[in-house]
Amino acid sequence: MNLQSSIDLAFSLRSQSYFSVSLTVFWVYDCFLTWNQEVYLIHQPPRKKANILYLMARYLPAFLLCIYLYMNHLKSETFVTCKLLHSIWYCAASFCVACAEGIFILRTYALWGSKRSILGLIFSTILCLAIFDVIITMKISSGLELRLSVRDGGCYSLSYDKMAALSWILLVVFELEIITLTMIRVYWAYRERRCLLLDILIHHNIFYFATGLTLTVINMIAIEYLPLR
Predict the structure, then answer these.
(1) Strand partners, 117
(2) Nearest in space to 221 (alpha carbons), one of 160, 173, 165, 163
């Protein structure tokens, strides 16, 4: 690696560290704003599935940010390697996304009156998409080469595979299914009650679904057109 490449790499790692620290500060500030409610949620009996999924999706990002920062400042691979840290980060991130999507699933399942046919449809989709995601992940992992920067420390990869965007595309497909099922129930409620459609959309948290879908699309576009170097 020549001098210019080393400078670009150091600048990239430092920029990513600044961005991660900013996200961490924002996350801590957000937690302080709702600390009382979250303490009540943790100690409130009984602990329902939705509560557990929310807490996992809420606090796992802090662990992900810590792992990411540690990877950017790793000085040696004596005790832990870049590939191991990346594997831990990926597994934790997948679990965090699964918890967040689990909240969507429970919400949609409840909207449909806990029908087993709807639950079967959702889990069939999850199974198919999970199989494709595992195949994509194995393909990406086989070509991923993580190295440790000798000059300033930090893990980096010279290879970049745009197939990573396919995992987000699968997530978009699943979220579109969830939003479609929710919109069908919203439309039925609108025809039955003849109330304002906007009130029903807010009542059924459709904007929460739409926000999750929008962020997923942004991630997909960023991977496709703004690769990190």
Answers:
(1) none
(2) 165
